[in-house]
């Protein structure tokens, strides 16, 4: 589900109809022209957040933990856990606090190891530069 705030009104839609999409675009343009920031989240990011949330929810249930159990142990609110499970953006520290309780933090960190990618494996023997600069 895609959600954005325009003025004090929240627009929610599950099905993309042409008229609804046109209305949302016009409303975003109106908000932008009034100086109201409207954040766009790319579809791939939204999909990944939703998948991560589904995995967290399944793991929580496999561990026989309630949302409140996870929230209390992670030191976050139950709303944060629910938002994470529903694929809504949460703070990174909250994400890793919850993933730690769900025993998913280490696998998440290991999955992002650049030396486990094809390019990383090819360049593992090379020494990394201290910084990368633009080539002009």
Q: Main attributes?
A:
136 residues, mainly alpha, 434 Repressor (Amino-terminal Domain), 2 domains, two-stranded antiparallel sheet, 7 helices, extended, disordered N terminus
Question: What does the secondary structure layout of this molecule look like, with pairings?
Answer:
Blueprint: E1 2-6, E2 9-13, H1 18-33, H2 43-62, H3 67-74, H4 78-85, H5 92-101, H6 105-111, H7 118-122
Antiparallel strand pairs: 1-2
Helix pairs in contact: 3-4, 3-5
Task: Specify Rg, calculated over alpha carbons.
Answer: 20 Å
What characterizes the major β-sheet?
A: 2 strands, antiparallel
CATH topology assignment of the largest domain: 434 Repressor (Amino-terminal Domain)
What is the mean predicted local confidence, pLDDT? 80
Percentage of residues in strands: 5-15%
Which spans have pLDDT < 50 for at least 5 consecutive residues?
Answer: 1-17
Q: Can you tell me the CATH architecture of the largest domain?
A: Orthogonal Bundle
CATH superfamily of the largest domain: lambda repressor-like DNA-binding domains
- Multimeric organization: single chain
Order of helices and strands: EEHHHHHHH
Total DSSP E strands: 2
What is the 3D form? extended
Lateral strand order in the biggest sheet: 1-2
Structural class per helix/strand content?
A: mainly alpha
Q: How many domains in all?
A: 2
According to CATH, what is the class of the largest domain? Mainly Alpha
Beginning-to-end CA distance, first to last residue: 43 Å
Query: How many distinct helices?
Result: 7
Portion in helices: 40-55%
């Amino acid at each position: 589900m895609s959600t954005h705030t325009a003025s004090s009104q929240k627009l929610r839609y599950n099905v993309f109809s042409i008229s609804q999409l046109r209305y949302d675009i016009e409303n975003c343009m109106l908000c932008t022209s009034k100086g109201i920031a409207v954040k766009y989240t790319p579809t791939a990011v939204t999909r990944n957040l939703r998948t991560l949330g589904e995995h967290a929810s399944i793991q929580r249930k496999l561990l026989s933990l309630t949302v409140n159990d996870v929230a209390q142990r992670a030191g976050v609110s139950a709303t944060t856990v629910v938002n994470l499970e529903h694929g809504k953006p949460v703070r990174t520290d909250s994400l890793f606090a919850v993933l730690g309780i769900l025993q998913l933090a280490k696998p998440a960190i290991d999955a992002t190891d650049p030396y486990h990618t094809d390019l990383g494996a090819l360049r593992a023997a090379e020494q990394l530069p201290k910084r990368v600069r633009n080539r002009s």
